[in-house]
TrEMBL record, chains A, B:
This is TetR family transcriptional regulator C-terminal domain-containing protein. It comes from Microbacterium arthrosphaerae. Keywords: DNA-binding, Repressor, Transcription, Transcription regulation. It comes from the Bacteria. The keyword Transcription regulation applies.
Length: 209, 209
DNA sequence: GGAGTAATTGATCTAGCGATCAATAGGCAA
DNA sequence: TTGCCTATTGATCGCTAGATCAATTACTCC
């Protein structure tokens, strides 16, 4: 009665199965946040017994951290791809703001906010969160430092300014998530604030809207 | 064997007991975040059977929302008390930044971030989060509007600017929580960004450090 | 001082989580 | 075709969560 009727057992190469499991986990997290990422949810999505997921993963904490890192990593790469086409530092910073605040990153914002909250209870996740934040910081610092070299920006602490910019943008995204509003309405104002932070001429950082 | 040895049953007036339970719940949330706020944790802290907590609370979701609202409400009042002594709008905004970013609000930041994350799974909490954000927004908007009247600030949208300021500050606090660093190092820079947002003369918003 | 009210207990139910492991069976090598 | 290796199963354990409710008992009022 309680046994699941049938299951056509398919045997795969360990590497393939492991990849399948991580892929399913990533999809679940993207759709429902990190809190939806459970052993059984992954198993069901792959179409496999729950024990198999556990077999391929040392612990769920590790899988969650891994998925978090993968998702943010992918986001960083997306943004880097967008910025690659933009040469001017001011325009690059504007494109960064536009991209991160275009109102179509709600799914990632959920992951981001849940990461902050859950990191307090999971050491692996805490590490992943810190690492991925530094990833972002490095990316932004480079833009700011470039601007300083070209004379468009003027600050003696590009690293600190980068942290501040990231914190601002994340906070506004999180707020929009909680309120159910669109972040993009903050993009223009954020550009003005960014100019003050990097020491750019007012109006020199262009954003779409 | 499994029964707890003894318990001196003390009977109290419903109102008193209810208050006791809410107080204990608030203390737990302050110390360990909203995720530490469980039926049994509250019962243990009050020194009472778990069933009694359930008896006084329609559901834990409601209690969590209530506690969240109480905690933020108290924070808002604290800040209002600090700002009451400051007449000048620019100085008021500076005092707001100083107070919210003095690095001693970690406990509240945990509640705040967990609130964002948990609100997705709890309708009562989602309502409380929205309500308390509006509380903050009203407070900040008033400062900005005052500044516009006095000529210290110049913006046509004090309400939107208020949202932006709150989002920024919350984001920086959350980031500092995740990184384990001190928010206060962002206060000065945040004041510069705030000047750009409210349309104040650079350097006109004073902060402590 | 006795009775009745209702505050309080604590065992119990359901549900979900991660983790474990003996048993099973798929697919490749010989 | 046969046999072995191991990928896979699924039942099960231990834990924690919120919720429920019949039984108990502390207090108040007459």
């Amino acid at each position: 009665m309680s046994t699941t009727p049938a299951r056509s057992r398919t045997r795969k190469a360990p590497a393939e199965r492991a990849a399948e499991i991580v892929a399913a986990a990533t999809a679940i997290a993207r759709e429902g946040g990190l809190s939806a990422l459970t052993l059984r949810a992954v198993a069901e999505r792959v179409g496999v017994a729950s024990g198999l997921v556990a077999h391929y993963q040392p612990s769920m904490d590790d899988l969650v951290a891994r998925v978090y890192a993968d998702l943010v990593e992918e986001e960083v790469r997306d943004v880097e791809a967008v910025l690659a086409d933009v040469a001017d530092p001011a325009a690059r910073l504007g494109a960064l703001i536009d991209t991160l605040m275009d109102g179509e990153r709600e799914e990632l914002t959920v992951v981001w906010v849940e990461g902050w909250a859950m990191a307090r209870r999971s050491e692996p996740l805490a590490g992943a969160v810190r690492a991925q934040m530094e990833r972002w910081q490095t990316l932004v610092e480079r833009i700011v430092a470039d601007g300083c070299r070209s004379g468009a920006f003027a600050t003696t602490e590009p690293g600190e300014v980068a942290w501040e910019l990231i914190g601002m943008i994340d906070g506004l995204n999180a707020q929009s998530l909680a309120l159910g509003t669109d972040t993009s309405r903050f993009a223009l104002r954020t550009a003005r604030a960014a100019e003050a932070l990097v020491g750019a001429r007012p109006g020199s950082i262009p954003v779409r809207s």
